[in-house]
Structures are given as C-alpha cells and as structure tokens.
Design brief:
It is a single chain. It is globular, with a radius of gyration of 17 Å. Strands 3-4-2-5-1-6-7 form a 7-stranded mixed β-sheet, sandwiched between helices. Helix 1 crosses helix 11. The chain has 253 residues and is α/β, with parallel strands linked by helices. It is built from 11 helices and 7 strands.
Length: 253
C-alpha cells in the first residue's frame, strides 16, 4: 500500500507546489514509484509538468463524475505519474460538500491504485476548504511547508489545531510527517530566530533540511523541468534529494 502524504498549508506562497514537484521527482530519481495528485484549482502542479490546462480528464472528473482514477493518470517520467487538475476544480469545490460522503471522495477514488505506488503526494489548496479536507482524509500523513517568519509560525499553530479537530471529527489516523522550512535565507537573523523557535516547539518534526530561497525554482518550469533536472547540483535540488532520502529512511516506502 502506498504511503499517502498530503502537503498542506494555511497560507499560499510557501512553496507547497514546489515541494510536491521536487519531492516527487527526487523519489522517482531513486526508482520509487510515485503518484502526484493536483488538488489545487490553480493547477500549478499540472502546469509544472507541461500538461495542458484544458485536459478533458482531470481529478475533477473522478471526484464529481465518478470517472475511474486510472483514466485520469498521466505518466510524466520514469517512476512518476500525475493526476492533473484544471481551473474547473474551482466549481467542483463549491458543490463538493453536497455530495454523499464528500470528505472521503478522494480517498475512495484512490483506493484501487494504492498498490501501484510507494508514495502518493497530494498538493492541497491553501486553507481548509472541502478539497483540503479530502486531501487530509485520503492521507495517512501530512507535510507542512513553512516560510521562516512569525506570521507563518502563527498560521502553522492554527493549522495543526484544525487538523487535530478534523482527525477527531472524521475518525482519521493521519499524523504529522514533518514541517519543512522553505524559502530560507540563513543570513537573515529573523529566519534563524524563527527556525530556532520552530525546532524548540516541534523538535524532530522539523526536517533538518532547509529549502533555500532561489530564483532558480521559478526559472526551471519555464524550461519545462524541475530544478533537479534544470540545475542538478543546485543547493535547492540537493535539499529535496535529502528530504526524499530522509522520508524513505523513516520507513514510509
């Protein structure tokens, strides 16, 4: 059975999609069968792999129309598949909560393919709307990217409380996989202070892998690549490779 990880955040602009892309590619580089699920109506994960936003079959078709998930999956490189999204997912989110067993629709859609993959990574939209609730209900672990600033730290605490409540209300067994510092600039004292506070508060749950702030993350998709392909030796690429190794070493795959 796949280890299913929801990548979630209360805030946008924290490197959530970037993390799903690069962690997925890093796992695939290791020969680990991995599936990425684009559950964000912005469809940035889909675009990162050069897929057309006008795709006829996307995650929306499975969630709302009952289309088999196997018809939606696209292969993007060896050991790496994706379930794409489109802007139509915005409309789906508005009516999703009216469907029977709506919090579990993604989990039920993914069940037939659990045996195909070692990891399923879900790119959830910011906040805790119906799509993010589906991501959390489908996952056995969640990963939180966080920028090292105090507003993000405050948001993190609120997110963890909210997921704890969802866990009780929906009868879930989801656990915090870890907190991933992103867009880190260690030369800034503020960043160092927040990282120290994070570690003091959450201990081993803070990945000791800091994703650096770099324009290269924005340049790579323009070239139709991940940073691991675009600039393989870049510190950001190496950081995501270390993250993939840590997750595998923890026994998830």
């Amino acid at each position: 059975m796949a280890r299913t990880i929801a990548v979630v955040s209360q805030k946008g602009g924290v490197g959530k999609t970037t993390t799903v892309v690069h962690l997925g590619v890093a796992l695939a580089e290791r020969g680990v069968p991995t599936l990425l699920v684009d559950l964000d109506p912005q469809a940035a994960l889909t675009a990162a792999f050069g897929l057309n936003e006008d795709l006829s079959l996307t995650i929306e078709a499975s969630l709302m129309k009952g289309i088999a998930i196997t018809q939606v999956i696209r292969n993007v490189r060896p050991s790496l598949d994706i379930i794409p999204a489109s802007f139509q997912l915005n409309q789906a989110e508005l009516s999703l909560h009216q469907r029977p067993r709506w919090p579990y629709r993604l989990r039920e859609a993914l069940q037939p393919i659990q045996g195909r993959y070692a990891y399923i990574l879900i790119d959830a939209p910011p906040g805790l709307g119906p799509l993010t609730v589906n991501a959390i209900a489908a996952a056995d672990a969640f990963l939180v990217p966080i920028r090292p600033d105090y507003l993000s730290l405050r948001s993190l605490k609120g997110l963890l409380i909210a997921i704890g409540r969802l866990r009780q209300q929906l009868g879930l067994s989801i656990e915090l996989l870890g907190i991933l510092p992103t867009m880190v600039q260690l030369h800034l004292r503020h960043h160092r202070d927040v990282l120290a506070e994070l570690t003091a508060a959450f201990g081993r749950k803070v990945f000791q892998v800091f994703i650096p702030q770099s324009i290269r993350f924005a340049e790579a998709p323009v070239a139709g690549q991940s940073l691991l392909d675009y600039m393989a030796s870049h510190p950001g690429a190496q950081a995501y490779r270390r993250l993939a190794a840590l997750i595998e070493e923890a026994g998830g795959g």
